[in-house]
Amino acid sequence: MTSTLGEPSRSVRSWKLLPAGLIALCAVLLFAVGNDVAGYASLAAGVVAAALIDRELLRDLSLIAGGLLIISIVPLHADLSLQHMALMGTALTLAVLLPWLISRFVYRERIIRFPVNTGRPWPLVAKLYLVGIIGLAYLILPFYLINTGVYHNWPDASDPVIFVRLFLGVNAVGIWDELFFICTSFALLRRHFPDWTANTLQAVMFTSFLWEIGYQTWGPLMTFPFALLQGYTFKLTKSLSYVVSVHLIFDFVLFLALVHAHNRQWLPIFLY
Fold first, then answer.
1. Distance CA 126, CA 72 (A)
2. To pair with 102 at 20 to 30 A between CA atoms, which of 17, 128, 135, 152?
3. Domain ranges of the chain
């Protein structure tokens, strides 16, 4: 079932989509729907299906599935107690670290990489894009948070300690999103699927994770395109530092908008 060039045939690629889709579905079930039984069943079915279809697909999907399994064990809501931050931080770290360690030192591959210093300067269009992100975040986030009331999914940062923890937490999760969904999941999926398919699959998982973090109601209408753009931007730039910069700019505005939403007299720079 291979082409004359030795590449997988279209039928094989179609069959590969089944286990990959089940892994993406498990993220929806675990994080967005909150059905652990169905979510773990979907995850297990995806791994078993991959084992029946292709050994390399099994290896790569198992790394993604392992990361999803780790982060599903801990609650992902914005609890800023030190105990929860340590627990969640440990889970998120392991979800990125273990797939990288296994890929690098067990499989002897360099598929999962975190390219920070690419040696290439950012072109003007890339810098203008960062400015555009500021403008979009400024217009969208306060409207979304306040009109839907989802800002209550994050704690009030009136207390100085909570203020600092919220800032650190928002930015840490933003960096992790790029490490796991873009540098790990997207990179592994691109080995088996066209870029648009791989990007869509990672965006489904990315959006599901953000739903449990707090981006609910019509939040996916914002987070899904953002996840797609992050994958596409990484494909173009091959730069972790750039996609992280995009995400942190967005999250900085998110942080300011959250502070404003809880305390309207603070930061009267927003339109809402």
1. 35
2. 17
3. 10-262
